[in-house]
Design brief:
Blueprint: H1 3-10, H2 19-34, H3 40-47, H4 51-64
Helix pairs in contact: 2-4, 3-4
Length: 70
């Protein structure tokens, strides 16, 4: 996992485990493991938040250019 990419794209430091960074790491790990992205429900469960909040986080990550949602 390239943390420098995360920090550059999301404007985070390594010490700052924001929900966006945690979600992005989870998405990348899940994709590497299974070949597909996790569902919003899986992201929400991982982050311990609502699906609505997870959706907002994913949209923010997509807007930053770190992922593409299809």
């Amino acid at each position: 996992v390239d943390r420098d990419l995360f920090r550059t794209v999301l404007g985070q430091t390594r010490e700052d485990r924001s929900p966006k960074l945690a979600a992005l790491e989870f998405i990348k790990r899940s994709f590497a493991r299974s070949g597909s992205a996790p569902s919003l429900s899986e992201i929400a469960a991982h982050l311990r938040c609502s699906r609505q909040r997870a959706h907002g986080i994913v949209k923010a990550i997509e807007k930053s250019g770190a992922i593409t949602v299809e």
